[in-house]
């Protein structure tokens, strides 16, 4: 289907390039939201030190910390869920064995 757009991305037609439009459609940029928060001076100083040490924006440091906290919470929830499932399986196995022993008697 010809839409009148060149398929090659020559320097003269970067905005008309069909391939770049397809790439943007398939791989959209992640949505970014700006927020404003109030933090204490101690946290501000820590963020500034990390910014100088890691050479990345403060927003990236905060985002990384939030992503790590979210991952930690998800792992904790999974661990608690698996422990609860294991406890339920143990109770179920005890009840099943007891019922089988009663059936044999």
What is this structure's SSE topology?
Blueprint: H1 18-26, H2 41-54, H3 58-104
Description:
With 105 residues, this protein is an all-alpha fold. It has a domain at 52-104. 67% of the residues lie in helices and 0% in strands. It is built from three helices and no strands. It has helices spanning 18-26, 41-54, 58-104. It is rod-shaped and about 75 Å long. The chain starts with 17 loop residues before the first helix and ends with a helix. 0% of the residues are buried. The mean pLDDT is 80.
Q: Notable features of this structure?
A:
single chain; 105 residues; mainly alpha; 67% helix
Summarize the structure.
With 105 residues, the protein is mostly helical.
Could you estimate the helical fraction of the residues in percent? 55-70%
Q: Per the principal axes of the C-alpha atoms, what is the gross shape? A: rod-shaped
Please tell me the overall pLDDT.
Answer: 80
Number of beta strands = 0
Number of helices: 3
What is the radius of gyration computed over CA atoms, rounded to a whole number of angstroms? 28 Å
Low-confidence stretches: none
């Amino acid at each position: 289907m010809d839409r009148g757009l060149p398929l090659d991305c020559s320097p003269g037609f970067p905005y008309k390039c069909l391939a770049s439009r397809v790439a943007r459609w398939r791989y959209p940029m992640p949505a970014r939201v700006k927020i404003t928060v109030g933090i204490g001076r101690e946290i501000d100083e820590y963020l500034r030190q990390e910014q100088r040490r890691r050479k990345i924006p403060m927003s990236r440091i905060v985002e990384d910390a939030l992503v790590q906290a979210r991952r930690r919470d998800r792992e904790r929830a999974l661990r608690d869920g698996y422990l609860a499932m294991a406890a339920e399986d143990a109770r179920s196995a005890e009840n099943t064995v007891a019922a089988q022993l009663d059936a044999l008697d």
